[in-house]
Fold:
Amino acid sequence: MVTADQKALSESQAGMRFIAQMKFYNDGNFERLRVFIQDSYSDALLAEQSAHARLNDLRERHAQVGRQKVKQVLAAGKHQVAVVLQAENTPHLYYAEVLVEEDYPHRILKFLHAPLQEASE
Structure:
């Protein structure tokens, strides 16, 4: 059974890039993740932080918090998605946002992945 969140992500260019990246991440397939980052991120984004550095960040995060699954899709447009993720080894939630180019091959212009902060009382 396909959930509304799965459907929203699969109908979005940004969502499909997010799904692919998270599959390689969750499988611990870091060589394939490295190739995905090199092939799917825009040159400008890779100029800000290299594929190697991005891969190291994701590898460290995987070692710390484990796999991550979609808890809720907050927004899904054709070229941008925002998602809340639940980590396997921690009760903390994470926020992810992906923005892609409008034109094919829809390279990733923005990939944000950060812990959600608890609201202060």
